[in-house]
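User: Hand in any protein.

Assistant:
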Amino acid sequence: MSKDIEKYFLNIQDQILLSLLSLESPKNRKPLVDNWKSNIGKGKTCVIENGSVFEKAVVTFSSVSGKKLPSSSGIFKDSKKIKKFKAMGVSVICHPKNPMAPTSHFNVRTFIVFDKKDKKSWWIGGGCDLTPFFPYKSDITLWHKSLKSMFDSFNKSFYEKFAKECDEYFFLPHRNERRGVGGVFFDNLNYKTHEDSLHLLECLGKEYTGTYCKILQKRRKEKYSKKHRLFQQIRRGRYAEFNLLHDRGTKFGLDSGGRVKSILSSMPPSTSWIYDMPKDLKRYETRLLKILDNTWVAN
């Protein structure tokens, strides 16, 4: 059964990687592919670096197992009764070169656990979010409407609930800022059968890829200046702060003895922490923070 589930996630990984590569120039369509094994599992990390569209994009599959489920998995109830666990998933992070194109994140996963009586239970989780630096309202609207349409086909209550959870989760309390303009986030979900749940994750992968690629097609060739580039790097710092301080996936990977090289591959390739925001960039920040403070959940 585990091999069949792994095939589901490997297929999601392949489809997303192929879609992202299709945006690149022919000479940049050969990603670094790292098939790895460790003492807790195996995986496949695919990296696009210094491309014509992506300064860095990472599409990772992992399948890990163990006897003790880390608290960062988000499961606390009866965790001491767990005998063993298996976790599988795909994680994507895209850092486009053009500052006018938004960063995006996507993740889907499943946990399978066995208690001391060998009773099995499972759940799924995942989500995707959009982080623009120079936001276009039409892109944000497209992003949310596409996610609503996809989730409405499964359950009419899912999108609004998951969109609110996304806004709450991707938040930097030390900055009192949202990381981006939202999307969806969910965890500990059982949707009908396990196969039905995996199909939901597969559909989310297709929706994320299709919509994000549409946005990139529009923004990849937008003109930008050195000022725009510097502002992008400063705001990427916020992204790094969230991943290192608050992201459950990063914490779970490190807590479970995961492969640091793969776990931290999501970090931005070039970032800046300037002590004070330059005066000539403050207008960009003022507009962005106003956009981030809005609720973009589609009706």
